[in-house]
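INTERNAL AUDIT FORM
Audit reference: QA-55
Scope: verify that the stored structure record matches its stored sequence.
Auditor: D.O.
Record contents follow.
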Amino acid sequence: MRISFLLLFLNALFFNQMAFAVDDVKLKSALLKAIKNHDTAAVKAIADGGHESIDRDDVLQEKIYIYLEAEDERIRLAKEKAKADVIAAQKKAKADAAAAQKAAEEKAKSDTLAKQRAQQKAKADAVAAQKAAEEKAKADALAKQKAAEKKAAEKKARADALAAKKAAEEEKRKKALAAQKEKERKAAAEQKRKQAAAEKKAAAQKTAAAKPAPKPSVKTAPKVVVPTVVAAPAAAAAAPSAEKMTEEPAIISDKKLIGTWKQLNSTKVTTFAINQDASFNLEEVEDDGTLTLLGTWKSNKNIFMLSIKKVQRNAHSRKTDIHRIYKIEILSNHRLVLRDQRNRIAYDLKR
């Protein structure tokens, strides 16, 4: 009986040791796993758990000490890193804020500068537009003024031409009236002369009839009739001769040609300027406008030639090379008559 109890006690002790041995292995395994996994709480719990197998194991104690010391250092470094990260983050945030503020200030400055440039450009464009408008208005006003002046000049030219035409017509009418009066006066004088001659003839015939001899009456009749018949033709012949002598050109010279000549009729007013430098200006003013001929002239005896270089009608002009030849019919101090190649009177000018 005593042997059996002893055997049972030994068996129980063995199994108890075996259980403790199994628990120590698990505990050390758990400790090593906690160290490996950096499970500091588990490591401290096992190390401070009062496990004899752990407390007496110098190797494990060394590992626990090294681990805890390294873990403390790692935690300290982690805290410092976290603190440094926080400081770096703060610095970065501050730098980002400063950069953002600077960028905003730069953008605001750029926007302000762009706005100022836009305002300056708008102002310059407005000034340029105003200047262009003023220049255009000035040009339009000048063109309008020139057009008005041209219109006024044309109107004046037409008025002058019309006045000259009316003056010429009035002069022509006066001359015609004077000629008619002169004709009537001459006719009355002729009638009076004929009546006086008839009365004289009748008196002579009455005297001759009173005489006894017929011969003296026949002889006295021619004495009365002949002077009356011959006197009128003699006076009529004398007048054309005098007129022809005043208009017949005695000497044709360039000196007599030089000057300004004019011709007035019912359709136009002609002004012919013959210059000393061999140039001329022929202007014909009509109701519908003005024709101007410019060029050079020359004469040879009674031949007068024009070389026309420019023709102008109102405001339109063109260059040309035309030659006109005239015959000088009459040239005096106050009259110039030119005939064309068809022997027609082209110009009857006076000055």
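Auditor finding: record pair retrieved intact. Confidence is low (pLDDT under 50) at residues 14-20, 216-250.
Action required: none
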